[in-house]
Design brief:
This protein is α/β, with parallel strands linked by helices and 215 residues long. The chain folds into 2 domains: 177 residues, Rossmann fold; 29 residues. It contains 9 helices and 5 strands. It has a 5-stranded parallel beta sheet, with helices on both faces. Helix 8 links the parallel strand 3 and strand 4. The longest helix has 24 residues.
Length: 215
């Protein structure tokens, strides 16, 4: 991993010393995401309650500028102008580089229909089954690590050839056996786990942005 990205991890641990135990899992999660994005993959994110809000938050950081400017590349700008010079120029000046990410918690018509018609525990699994492609990544967020809909989605993800990252609390849980990397925030109370989840996913978004748009 690039030296600058190692410094980001060091700074994170300096601000949140408890996360020292997560250092190598955070690095491993970054490597999985970097490799996926380098191969045109998509990140699928799911969670319940506060973790659903975290899923939306992560998508917001990846799909637009987070800390640095993300101007579209010159060949992309040319393609936009070739379709329509005036509108293409406006698009070229204002569109931002994006890392494809979808929050599975953000589709109320689909989720309520599926929960009503089929099996509510499988709603995230249904979306993984529909969206997921080999080489994509599923990020399951669960403070307990035992949320049934997240665990089923992880099983579906593995079956479809996705890599799986878990973001959980300290305890052993049902999600981790299906994870390529499981980041255990070192707390046991829900709100304290969530307080550590935010800096963990922020640093992952920061590292990815630096890698893909920092040159």
């Amino acid at each position: 991993m690039e030296e600058k990205l190692h410094r980001f991890v060091e700074e994170l641990i300096g601000r949140h010393p408890k996360l020292q135990v997560c250092r190598w899992d955070i690095v491993g999660a970054y490597e999985i995401l970097r490799e996926s994005y380098e191969n045109h993959g998509t990140l699928l994110v799911a969670g319940n309650g506060g973790s659903a809000a975290d899923a939306e938050h992560i998508v917001g950081e990846l799909m637009k500028e987070f800390k640095m400017k993300r101007k579209v590349f010159s060949d992309q700008a040319w393609s936009l102008r070739a379709v329509n010079p005036e509108m293409g120029e406006r698009l070229a000046q204002n569109l931002q580089g994006a890392l494809p990410a979808i929050s599975l918690a953000g589709h109320p018509s689909l989720t309520t229909a599926y929960m009503n018609d089929a099996d509510s525990d499988l709603i995230f699994a249904q979306q993984v089954w529909g969206y997921g492609r080999p080489g994509d990544v599923f990020l399951g967020i669960s403070t307990s690590g035992n949320s049934a809909n997240v665990v089923y989605a992880a099983v579906a993800a593995k079956a479809k050839g996705l890599k799986v990252i878990g973001l959980t609390g300290q305890r052993e849980n049902k999600l981790q056996p299906y994870c390529d990397i499981c980041i255990h925030a070192p707390e046991t109370e829900t709100y304290r786990i969530q307080e550590l989840h935010l800096p963990i996913y922020h640093i992952l978004c920061l590292m990815l942005e630096e890698h893909f748009f920092g040159r």
